[in-house]
Amino acid sequence: MLYPSIDKLLTKIDSKYSLVSVAAKRARSMHNGGKPTKLENPVSLKCVGRALEEINADMLTYEIESD
Known about the structure:
single chain; mainly alpha; 49% helix
């Protein structure tokens, strides 16, 4: 089973598209040597899973820019 679940993640970020965009950007950052995860004991070994865990823990958010 996927952890964290998609239902929990969609309470943090309003759409699946935004969720994928935020998680992918953070995962790329971790993979390319960016800031390591701040999670104490991450469940996932992969960058995408850790990015989703950060979203679930409210450590990662996004902001919509207005024109």
